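Quick start: what a row looks like.
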Amino acid sequence: MDIRSAPKLAWENKLSKGFNTTDIPLESCLLNGEVAEASDAWCKGQHDVAEELADSAIFLLGLAEMIGADLQDAVVAKLARNQAQAYHRLPSGVLVKAGATAPPG
């Protein structure tokens, strides 16, 4: 399976199960919940972190399909931009994009 076919599979599952296919804010909230579950599982040393990450990915793929985004092209383009971006460390040790200033505070 490649990135381009995965959103269609997630979408087909949504349709067959009667899951949300129209409410983008709801889907975004559900995605955030799945990411939080993955983080919680990792923090607790649970063995289902990969399954929670898979849930997160499935929600992300479904959301991409809902809005008509070509996630494969977007990921390839973003990886290329990230590769070309320069970073530096602030005195605090935080890594930031070159040219960025420290956040207030």
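That is the whole record. The longest helix spans residues 24-43. The chain has one domain: 6-97.
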